[in-house]
Design a protein that fits this description.
By secondary structure, the chain is mostly helical. It is built from 6 helices and no strands.
Length: 128
């Protein structure tokens, strides 16, 4: 694993943007063109509750390797000063850990693994 110098919050900001973009692009490809419908569907998947649910499903399948689990732990231990609007603190930290992992994979150019993670997220996105 590379020496990760970015803090977990920075990684989470990057990961959140990547996930939001991938989800919206996928929904557009599936034919969701109306702005209100697109927003509702993408919000459900990219919300703290949605991301926490995705993380739980991925963890239950032992999806992550040891290096990725370390990044998830960093994300879970991030110092978050804002509060999630519609989620409790634990749910918000789970979501932050998934976002941090996506940010790490993007920033350190683990493109294939990022693609695997995003494909899994998109695959189960409609089940959330």
């Amino acid at each position: 694993m590379e020496i990760v110098t970015e803090n977990a919050t920075s990684l989470a900001w990057i990961g959140d943007a990547i996930m939001s973009l991938a989800v919206r692009e996928d929904l557009l490809k599936k034919g969701y063109q109306k702005p209100n419908t697109l927003q509702k569907k993408s919000s459900r998947i990219c919300s703290a509750k949605g991301q926490a649910s995705i993380l739980e499903k991925m963890s239950a399948l032992d999806f992550f390797n040891e290096d990725e689990k370390e990044i998830l732990n960093r994300g879970r231990n991030a110092s978050i000063h804002s509060k999630a609007k519609n989620a409790d603190g634990q749910t918000y930290l789970k979501a932050t850990s998934l976002e941090a992992l996506l940010g790490y994979l993007y920033l350190y150019k683990h493109d294939e693994r990022l693609k695997d993670c995003l494909n899994f997220i998109l695959k189960i996105g409609d089940t959330i």
